[in-house]
Structures are given as C-alpha cells and as structure tokens.
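Record type: monomer structure entry
Structure origin: computed from sequence
Chain ID: A
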Amino acid sequence: MSRPPFVNEPLTDFTKPENKKAFEKALTIMKKRMGEELPLVIGGEKIMTGKKHQSVNPANTKEVIANVSKASKTEAEKAIQAAAKAFETWRFVEPAKRAEYLFKAADIMRKRKHEFSACMVLEAGKNWVEADADTAEAIDFMEFYGREMIRYSSEPKTKLYQIPTEHGRLEYIPLGVCVVIPPWNFPNAIMCGMSTAAIVTGNTVVLKPASDTPMIAYMLVEVFEKLKLPAGVFNFCPGSGSEIGDYLVEHPQTRLISFTGSKDVGLGIVEKAAKLAKGQIWIKRVIAEMGGKDAIIVDKDADLEHAATGIVKSAFGFQGQKCSACSRAIIHKDVYDKIVKLIKEKTEKITVGNTQDVDNYMGPVCSIQAFKTISKYIETGKTEGKVITGGEVQKNQDGFFIPPTVIADVDAKAVIAQEEIFGPVLSVIKADSFDHALEIANDTQYGLTGSIYSSNMKNIEKGEKIFHVGNLYINRHSTGALVGVHPFGGFNLSGTDSKAGGEDYLLLFLQAKSISRLKGHKPF
C-alpha cells in the first residue's frame, strides 16, 4: 500500500476549550498511573527485579511517577542475547513490513497523543506546548523513517552503472544488535526516533532509558506490545550507567550504539566502543549527539524586537534544557544596550511553576543534580558578569525550580560562556563587529545550533559559510527543529553530525552490500 508524502504532525492549539479539556483528561489518566511498578521487558518476558529506581515529578518530588525495576549485568546479558536471537529473523523481514509497524505505532500514539504528552508534563516538567511538540516529533520520526526505509529498499537497486557482462545491484542490510541510550530532555521524541530507526532498518534494540524518564519510554513498550512486535526486537532494560551501561556498550555482540546525552558520557562511549572485545568480529559503530554551547548573533541592523523574542524563546523554552537552547547571545556593540533591555523585559514576563497549570511557561529542571549544577553556575556567573534578571534560586521547595537568569557583560572566555550549563542561564556578550561576533560564536568546542539575526545579506551569506554549526538558522530562533525540514546534528564535540530526521540518517543503521551476477544467468 502506497503512502502519501510525509507531512509534519500538527501541533495542538490549547487556546481551544475542547483541546484544553482533552489534555486535562489525559493528565487525570496519567495521575492514576502514578506509582506504577514497571518491569524489564526482555525477549517479550516481563521481569521484576529486587532493585528499584523511583521516577519522581521534578515539580513535586513527593509524587512518585513510577517504581522501575533495575537490570543487573545478568539481565543486561539476557537482553543482548534476546536481541541477537531476534535479529536472525527480523533482519529478513521485508522492509515494507517493518515500516508498517512504525506506521501503526504512529497511529496508536496519535490516538493517545495527550496521554504521552501528559506523562512528560508529570515526569519531565515540560509545559503543555513543549510536551505536545515532543509527542508530535515522535510521531514524525516514525512516519518519516518508515517512508525512508521503503525508499532505501527500492531505489538503490537501480542506481549502479551496468556493464555488458554482469547484472549488478546495491543493497542496504542491517548491522545487528543496537544499544539505544536516549536522553531525558526529549524523552519521547528522541527515544522513539533512535529506537524506531534501528528497528525499521532491521536491527534489534536493547533500550536503556534515561533514569529520569523511564515511564514515557515504557509507554512505547506498550505500543509495540499492542502491535505484537516480535519478541526480542525491542527490549526494555533500565538500569544504572555504571552497572549496565558500560556492559552493554562493551559487549562483543553489540554492533551499534545510538546515544544522545552529555559530552563526557558520549566520549566515554566512543572510547569504550573503540576497544575490541574478546570474540568481537566487527568495528562497533557509534552514533552520538552530545549537546552544545549554542549562540545567537544579533547584527547592528537586525530587527531588534524579533531578535530579542527569538533569544528568550531559545534560551528558556523547556527551562533551557534543550541541546539546541541559546546559552550565548552575541550582540553587536551598536545595539547591545537596546537588546539587553528587551531581553530583560521579555524574560521577566515568563511564568515559572508547576506545568500541570497551562499558564506556566517554565517548569522545574529535571533533577536535584541538575538543580545543584545550574545553581553553582549561576553563582559563578555573578562573578563573571552582571545579573540583569533572575539569579536568586529558592532552596527550600518541593520542586527543582530555577528562575530564568540573564547575565550581561560576560567575557567570551568566561566559564559561563564556554561550558554547557543545560539550564535557564543566558550569557550576553558584546561584539565589536559582525566578524568579531562570528569569531566568538565559533570559539567553543561545540558546534550544534546557532542563529543569525541580520538584514545585511552580505553578512548573512558570510555567516552561512563560516558559522560552524550543524544547524544554522537565519532570522529565527535556534530551537524547534522539525523532522524532514531541519535534519538535526552537530559538529566538533556536539557529536557525529548524525542528522536525525534527515534523508541520510538511516544509512547510519545500515551497511551496503554490492552484488553482481554474470549475465547468461537469471537476472535480478
């Protein structure tokens, strides 16, 4: 059955009373699931273990979202073996049939869209709009990758040059067992995209979900259970990174690791995967996206109102916890004071609180560890610049709330201008010229996203060539990449430029096999 062309999933308009009511109902449904006991799911078997991990609501830590069984090395080994066994049959399933699982999963998620989003409001502190966009992106990944797998399985056969004596074709075949280690900040979209890209290409998955957001990952398990995805194709294996994360990465039967998270953990995975384990007969492939220190440049002839709006949106959407979030605003000296004033005014209009209330724009940061780390950076920032708004963190509270904080007059080499903070902290830096702004923007070990606000076409074109990031936006905010529209992934220590949601992404989960038959024998 042919599919219509891919289109992005529409976002929900919460100004409509019927949509607001539907989301409130979904929140009620998910609240009833609070405290649920979640098993491991390995080879289709549900396994409860003695060790548990509690997922809590970061807006109210007294609320337990789920009690999750933790895998030991014993269960991790069992998951690898289940995935390896399933691979021997799943690899030969027709690509169109594998894609059909994704299309059906997307349909289920679409019908339960508000429940998935409500789970992220409770478990990750996303506001309604951010959670809705996260679920829409998860649906997009499944719809897009399903179509891409069908394309990959048909088009390459006709693209080889032919010679008179042979029939030739090129096929893409799967790699094997894929260990998927997703982040907590896009707990549905990225987790779902990484997992389904591996599944649709014929690989099998051992998913180690983020410790802060296991419930939303388990909801994808429920989707695949309903579709009767063959046992062992998708294995749910939560546990600590130190106990099972390294074990899964270093295992000789692991063929591929797909990771999104911090630079330090990602580099550790790259290093461990590079070592040949006993019995291993391949070079492991690592797909890694590792964050950034993203900058927005404002030129002297930019639309300042538009630029300030984009900076605030990019810096403080989802509490600044997006790898694409703007953490450095680099402003031309001629308009610096005006922009700083506008940023301050717009930031001070942001509402902070429990995101179960639709009127709260910013919720809590993800964990006590994040709260402590960000608070420490704010204290450092007070010595490196001038706090123009925010900066005062309330210590005695039930949730991990940090106000949106803007620190102006920051030196480009300052700690808060160089290190990834992953929270609602914006450094504002003055540049002498547009060229100087580009120098500052590129003076970092990262290279993920960036934006330029300017009406000078010559400067824009220069920025397009020189600003060294994987995703560059002109006269718009630096967040909100859409599947198929903005293939996402960065340079330098931001990762392997894996371009999720792009037409070459599935190639990372495949290997090419060239086949030729001598003419005179049966052709393909």
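Annotation 1: The radius of gyration is 24 Å.
Annotation 2: The domain at 26-290+498-513 is CATH 3.40.605.10 (Aldehyde Dehydrogenase; Chain A, domain 1).
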